[in-house]
Amino acid sequence: MLFLVLIYQDDAKIAAATTDEQQAVGRDYGEFNTFLAESGALRGTATWPSGVTTVRSQGGQALVTEGSYQATGDRIAGFFLIEVADMVAAIAFARRVPGAQYGGVEIRPVQG
After folding, report:
1. Whole-structure pTM over 0.85, yes or no?
2. In this structure, are residues 6 and 108 in contact, taking their beta carbons and an 8 Å threshold?
3. What is the topology classification, in CATH, of domain 2-109?
4. Which residue of 1, 8, 12, 104 is 20 to 30 Å from 49, comparing CA positions?
């Protein structure tokens, strides 16, 4: 099964973290990314905020802006797409996301 795993980040929590804590999360992500690559389950990944474009309909016209749709609160900091046996396996991957301490991780089954 395919699962989209969204990583949410609370920017205020990250800003409150010490430099050492932020660097530790960066190192942990390096190890996590290696784990994903070596797992054989990874089908795609992306991090933000770079490359985000939002399209909205306003007055019957498409309004295209750079950046995330959500301006406040937790924002999507990245995602990975995995192919694993079931939700239990997807949760095992999600539990390893280093940034979960600064937000949360959401798992969505992908249909089709």
Report:
1. no
2. yes
3. Alpha-Beta Plaits (3.30.70)
4. 1
Our separate counts of H helices and E strands in the chain read 3, 6
Q: How far apart are CA 48 and CA 79, in angstroms?
A: 9
Determine the residue type at 103: G
- b/e per residue 16-32 (b: at least 16 CB within 10 A): eeeeeeeeebeeebeeb
User: Considering just the CA atoms, what is the radius of gyration of the chain in Å?
Assistant: 16
Instruction: Count how many Cα atoms sit within 13 Å of the Cα of residue 103 in the half-sphere of its side chain.
Output: 22
- DSSP H helical segments within the chain, as ranges? 11-16, 19-39, 87-94
54-108: per-residue pLDDT in tens? 777 888 888 887 766 655 566 788 899 999 999 999 999 999 999 888 888 999 9
